[in-house]
Fold:
Amino acid sequence: MNTFLAQQVFRYFLTSQHKRGHGIHSPFVYNLIRSVFIDTTKYPEYATIEKVRTQLLGNKSSITLQDFGAGSQSLQGTQRRICDIASSSLSPKKYAQLLFRLIRYTKPSNILEMGTSLGISGAYMSLGHPHARCISLEGSAEIARVAQQTTLQCNCSHIDIRIGQFSETLSQALEDLGTVDFVFVDGNHQKDATIEYFETIFPYCNEHTILVFDDIYWSQGMFEAWQYIIADTRVRISIDLCKLGIVFFRTGIVKQDFRIRY
Ligand SMILES: C[S@@+](CC[C@H](N)C(=O)[O-])C[C@H]1O[C@@H](n2cnc3c(N)ncnc32)[C@H](O)[C@@H]1O
Structure:
């Protein structure tokens, strides 16, 4: 981690607000925190999905990797064990379960995921609101095949997993959905690409759309992309959780940026 990034993480820890919502005056964000962030219910879906994660973590078979994302470029075309992908690429359960609760609470009619990997976050999101139409984009065909198995095991085989680089699949997915309600951007963690995804997705957003960006402190570039996004006047509320960044476009509320210790 370079000095700039270390300073930003330090600043986050110094300035972030308590996760129980103390001192937060926005009723919208306060309600979200009380209903979603601090909900400690053990939903039965958690156990189903975590059982599959455990199986993936124990799966020693190898697949050919074709990762287009930042940070994994050197692994292109190489063999990689499923257990290694499971331990390095999947959203930790704390954050995947937050996505589940966010979706359970907001009930989006559709969900778009960029970066399926082995299907764990997709399963959480889809089970958060099983009636939602769900599209998940993945560049690597072999990884996507494993994700299909995950969706079967988690009873969410209705997730439409589309294989291809985001540059080839994103526009069609957006066209098919018409308007997007919930988007999780979790692949190709590079500044310019992330900004481009934001700009491409924005015309399909409505005032209730929620965009979630993963790894916003992963690199200086990702942090700068996050700063670009939250500075946009179309974004009304942003919540920085250090690992995830969440943005809302709701009209009629004062533009505000929150940092919450999660
Ligand atoms: C961090 S993993 C996703 C993890 C998953 N969302 C989860 O939490 O369970 C990112 C995935 O995005 C895919 N990916 C990265 N860049 C891509 C691109 N430009 N086009 C298509 N897929 C890409 C990678 O192959 C990888 O499987």
Observations:
- The mean pLDDT is 93.
- The pocket of S-adenosylmethionine is lined by residues 67-69, 89-91, 115, 117, 120-121, 137-140, 143, 165-166, 186-188 (CB under 6 Å).
- The chain has one domain: 3-58+92-259.
